[in-house]
Give the backbone structure.
Amino acid sequence: MFEEFVEKYKLPSYRLNQINKHFYQEPHTSFEEFESLPFPIREKLNSEFSYISIKAKDVIKGKNVTKALFLKKGSKVPFETVLIKNSDKRNTLCVSSMIGCPLGCRFCATGRMGFVDYLTDREIIDQVLFFQRQLQKNNQNIDNVVFMGMGEPLLNLENVVKAYEVMTSPEKIGLGKRKITISTVGIIDQIEKLKNSTFKGKLAISLHASNQNLRELLIPIAKTNRLSMLMQTLDLYTKKNNKRISYEYILLEKINDDKFHALELAKLLEGRLAHVNLIAYNQVAGFNYKTPSKNRIIFFQQILQKHNISTTIRASLGRDLLGACGQLATKLKRR
Ligand code: SF4
């Protein structure tokens, strides 16, 4: 972002390093605080850039979760970012790539909002910087970033990949490449593009069903992005990157949590470099889906493990903040 600025004013290259360090790596709140820079440069920065491109409308703190509602300039519909403190004390940030989402997955509150707008690379990065600066004040950092907030990141691929580049650049935010995860419902042609992009982070597929019929009932776009084709595309992706793919599977009582679903899922992933994250559905008013019992979830996991499928049951940390990504903003919008 500051490369053109340094070029425009013919500043020596070390100035770019100073600006990047202050902006991306230190917990300042304005350009005026960039003490290693002469005052005129600080003033110019101030007149040419906004320090943060998004406005925090609300920040809600739960036990291990902090949720921020942001507004994009000129928009009245909030989008959200969620910071999760994992049990091992690592900080995972769940960022949004859109306001709302056009894909309308049946169990998803964000999908019910419909599509409002794309977020730019700067608006994605500023979600990270907002939380990073807060954490740095307590000598902490963001450890992982997951694109699991509002929106389908692969439908905003250019901005998502640009944001990834800033997040992983050692001169900028400096996160490790494998610390960033893109989660997608599986848009085949966009996975092809991702494969050929600079993205070297992790890929997570929101699978949620073990067969084509069930998948297209839950995820409308699966009708045109068929499971068999998706798996073939993912095989090529794994071949190129040689990295394990995560499969997210939200367990919905009596919809996708039967023994035969577990067996079908095990068969689907057999021989593939895969890890399954089982997530208990978080019940929300207005949706008819129910959370399966703990025993049922454990039973499902045991079947997968018996078939040598690496599986984790993911804790649903957001419950005390009205649930998973997307749910709070929807509630606010409906009022
Ligand atoms: S699950 Fe993801 S892709 Fe589907 S509607 Fe929700 S945000 Fe969009």
